[in-house]
Amino acid sequence: MKKKRFTEEQIIGILREQEAGAKVADLARKYAVSEATLYNWKAKFGGMDASEAKRLKALGDENAKLKRLLADQMLEAAALRELLGKKW
């Protein structure tokens, strides 16, 4: 997986520059990202402050962990059902 180049705090700082009046094209050139990336960031992080972005990331990490745990439990249950279903 590709490493992220910018933290949530940095992204929010860049978006604040854009809200202050900087042009998207200038910001894209300054930070070496595409304009589409800036618009995607704005859709995801627009209106947030740094603490909200950290909370969003923490919730996403927790959600991924819980999904992995659920998948492990479902695999284990399926294996047990298969084992118990066999006639010896």
Chart the SSEs and their pairings.
Elements: H1 8-19, H2 24-31, H3 35-45, H4 50-85
Helix pairs in contact: 1-3
* Broad structural category: mainly alpha
Number of DSSP helices? 4
Order of helices and strands: HHHH
Helix content: over 70%
Strand content: under 5%
Integer average pLDDT:
89
Question: Main beta sheet, described?
Answer: none
What integer value in Å does the Rg equal? 21 Å
The total strand number stands at 0
Q: Ends: how far apart?
A: 45 Å
What is the total number of structural domains? 1
Unreliable stretches: none
- State the shape: elongated
Q: Notable features of this structure?
A:
88 residues; 4 helices; 0% strand; mainly alpha
